[in-house]
Each structure stands twice: as C-alpha cells, then as structure tokens.
Amino acid sequence: MMKPSVFTWRNRRPHILILVTGCVGLLGGIGLLTLLMGTPNLSPPDLWVILTGGGKPLARIVVTQLRLPRLVLGILAGAMLALSGGLLQDALQNALAGPELLGVSAGATVVVAAITILHLAVTFSVVPWLALVGALICSSIVILTMRQIRNSVQLVLTGAALTALLNASVIVFISLGSQNDISVLFLFLVGSLANRTWMHVNLVLPWAALGIPLALLCVRPLNVLQLGDDVARGLGLPVMRVRLLILVLSSALVSVVVAVCGPISFIALLAPHLARRILQTSDARAVLPCAALIGAVLLSGADFFARQAFAPQELPVGIWTTLIGGPCLLLLLRRKPETQRGEQ
Amino acid sequence: MAIRGSFFDPNVEDIAKATPDLIIGLANVHENLRDALRPIAPLYIMNPTSYTASINYLKDIGRLAGRSDQANQAAQHFLHKLAAYQAKSPKNKSALLMYGSDVNFNIFTVGSLFGGLLAQATNYPWPTPGPSAPAASDHEPGAIPYSLEKILAVNPDVLFIASLAAAQPLSKQLANNPVWSNLKAVQNKQVYEVNPGIYIFGRGTRSLALALDDAMNKLYPDVFPTPLS
C-alpha cells in the first residue's frame, strides 16, 4: 500500500471541492432521472405533484414505492460498499483488499442458495434477514480465524482461502439445482437493486446510520496503519486489535448490503481508488468520505443504466458494475499518480 | 434405473449401464456430453421455443422410435385441443407466467414456450424482447428479468407463479407487499402457484396440454370447468 502523501486541507481544498461538488451534482442528476424515467415517464411538474402527495395512483406507487426506495438503497449501498473497501485497503495495506475477503458474500449466498435450490419454506420478506444472518456468521468465522494472525499478507491470504471454501459450498448447491432455481439464484449472485422497496431500505438504514459514522471515525488509525505496522506500533497503536475491529466494521457494512442486494462487485474496490486518484492523496480523512460519495454515484448511476438500457427488461446492476468497474480498476492500478510514485 | 450426478452433469457410466437406444438432451446444457455419449447411443438435442417446435420434437422422436403414427396422432390431439380452447376462450383476461420471488424473478414472454402457447388462448401482453436486448436464459428461451413498473402498468388479471416453496400462500405474501398488492390479480386473489414440472420444465405436447388445461380453468373457470379434450 502506498504511503500517505503530505496532506493539508488547504492544498487539497480545490480537489475536494471539485470532487464533492461533482458527486453531489451527479447524484442529483441521476436521482432526478431515476425518478422521472420508466413506466410511466414523468415530467418534472408531474414528479413534483407526486412528491407532494398528489398524482395518479399508479404513478404515485411507482415513484414512492419503487423508484425512490431503489434510489435511496443505491446511494446507501454504494456508500457502504465504498467505505468497506476503503477501510480494508488501508487496514490490510493491500490495494486489492475487498469485502469478498471477509466471507460476507459467500455467507449470504450460501443461505439464499439453500433457500432457492432446496425450496425451503420461507416467506419472501424473511429471506434478506436470513441472508444477513448467514453473512454475519460466515464473516465472524473468517474474522475469528484471522484473530491469531499477526501479518497483513497472511490475513489477506487466509481471508481469500476461507472465502474460497465457502464459495465451494455455493457451487455444491448450484450443482444440485434445477435450471430455473439457478436462474433465480443467478439474479441474486450478480447483485441487483430491482424491485427493492422501503422494507429493504429499512433493513439497511440502521446499519448505515451506525456503520457510516463509525467508519469515518476510523480515519486516524487508518492513516497510522498506512505508515506500516512497525511505525504504527511505535506510535502506540494496538495494530492487530485495531485491524480486527476494522474487519468487523467492514463486515457489518457489507453484510446487510449483500443480504438485500446480493454481492455487487467492484464498487468497494473502485471507489477508494478513484477518490485517491482524484484527490492525489491517500489520507483517509479525505479519501473515506469522498469514496463514500463516489460509491453512491457509481452504484446509483449503474442502477439507472441497468433499469433503462433495455427497458422493460431489467439487467442486474452487478453486471454493469463488473463491466465498467473491472477495466477502470485495472487502469487505475496500472497508472499510479506521479505523487504516489515518488513516495515509494 | 436412477442416473446419478446432476441435471447439468449426469453420470455417464450410469447412462451407459441403462443401455438406452436414444438419449434426449437439452440444448445449451448437454451438448458437451456428445463425445462421451457417442459410444452409448445417439444424442438428440432439443429445446423447443414454440408449441410448433414442440410438435416437431414429438414427430422427430416418433420417427426415431419407429412410432410415427402415434406421434402424429398425439400431435393432432394437441392441436385439436388448442383449437378448441382458442374457439371457446373469451380472451378477455390477461395473464402472466413468472418464476422466482417478489424481488428476483423472470417472466415468460411470448417468445417462451408456454408464454407463446398461452398467447394463443388468452390475452398475454408480454412481447418478445427486441433483437438488441440481451439474450434470455439459455435454459428458458424467452424468460427474462422484467420491470415491475411495467407489470404494474399492464396490471394482469391472473398471475401464475412457479416460486420457491413458500411458508405462506403466494397470494397472501404478495398482498402484504406494498407494490405487488396493487395488482388486481393480487387484490382479487388470482395468484396461482403452478407446478413447474408441467408449466416450465415440460417441453413436450403432453405437459403443454396439461398446463393449458390448468391455466384455462384458472383463467375462465365458468367457461372451462373441466379440461377440453
């Protein structure tokens, strides 16, 4: 992981202002388009009438019960994924560290796969709760296993190995499934925001309300960790304890997103890298909040395309985040900014 | 005898032990077994996407099995049944066949096997995706993830759902959902859990006829209290 560049609010203020203004502007534009476009297409005055409690019943249901919760969920989930990625990359000092190392996705997927393939008698509204329990149990196992490890590279490798083990159990379910069950499971596996309602937002909201501020409170220890374990210890930071706490927080942020939306890839990896690149610093005080904003823009924007590109056919948003996020990440990792090259 | 393995990866040794004269496989799933199965028996790959393709499949199998007369007779019987439903159906109710749950689901468009058949006998307003749209599932041609907004706008009279096994009746679950509960099919308790074995997995004329009998009875119980012959 690169060392932090010299950061002062004054010398980075223009970058931060441009990034925040750009993200807020993009979010506003995406949000407006999300609320306006679809079946039915609405004009801005129509939308205003609906948002103030009037309008035709169908349009009101579509806007207030489908488009609005989907937009809110996209913003929250994008921010939470991005924060989780930023926390892990800094805490593990690894540019490729992501939530998949924590077994979260595999845990939720195992539960959803079991329900789908084995046709377990579970009501629809209970499925995300059970997926959340699966994600938390599996990530707890992974984190407890990591507890004894004293080296960040070993942490990454252990997380990857355990997650691979959990993913193997998903493959077992897939091999047992019928064509249609697998097709439905596939919609979960690639990640989607389609058809989510306020019930799903309400499930995510308490975790976001608690997790996002806690993540932003981690910026100081993250900056110390970026200096390397020896320096961090020298500065009095209990390195492994802090690292495990960050793993737990990261896992909590992602678990609920995966349970509700499925494992949406690349937002967690890409958003922190984009923030570092635009701000030209790896200082977590600036990177984490900006990464959260970028994550919100990326996911809500990708979801808008997922909904509109082939309407009325829906494409899972995870397909777009992978198609766009993969090449972007490769490009970002290939071309490090000059300031960071100089520091290494 | 039972063939071990899975649908996607059947045990070839078991297939050999069964000494079949003909092996029927599903397109996009079993083609890769062709080389392994060649010494055992010829492999006939199928995946009909329309009822006419299903009739052709029936005739092919009749020819391969040396029972063309019976296959032709069965095909005629199916076509008569369909014609009888078409003639008598009021066609004033719209239907939707889908599978999955309230959030992750695919619908069967007219381009699917049973969607296309149902469109012959009732109002089935779910057109085949255009040529520029992403391909549907390899296993279920014409079945696609679809906009719930569009479903709300069309507002079908009857929903046929092949879902996960449910702890509660589907109609009750959807009635509790703030979005699905706005559909008239849900409000009028016209949501039916259907047997995927005949509605979706069955690709022959026999299962198509069974599914048609069932669907027409549910759509128009006064007109079709019993299946037409």
Number of strands of chain A: 0
Determine the strand fraction of chain B and express it as a percent band: 5-15%
Radius of gyration of chain A, in Å, reads: 20 Å
Query: Helix and strand string of chain B, N-terminal first?
Result: HEHEHHEEHEHEHHEHH
Number of domains of chain A: 1
Supply the CATH superfamily name of chain A.
ABC transporter involved in vitamin B12 uptake, BtuC
Distance between the termini of chain A: 9 Å
Strand order within the widest sheet of chain B? Answer: 5-4-3-6-7
| Range of strand content of chain A | under 5%
Kindly describe this structure.
The complex is a heterodimer of chains A (344) and B (229). Chain A is mostly helical and 344 residues long. Chain A has helices spanning 9-36, 44-51, 57-91, 104-117, 127-146, 152-176, 179-190, 198-217, 219-225, 229-234, 239-261, 267-279, 284-308, 317-334, 338-343. By secondary structure, chain B is of the alpha/beta class. Chain B folds into 2 domains: 10-46, no CATH class; 95-219, Rossmann fold, CATH 3.40.50.1980. Chain B contains 10 helices and 7 strands. Chain B has helices at residues 12-17, 34-37, 51-64, 68-88, 113-121, 148-154, 170-175, 184-187, 196-201, 205-219; strands at residues 23-26, 43-46, 95-100, 105-108, 143-145, 158-163, 191-193. In chain B, α2 (34-37) links the parallel β1 and β2. The model of chain B has no long low-confidence stretch (mean pLDDT 89). The interface between A and B is large, with 47 and 46 residues.
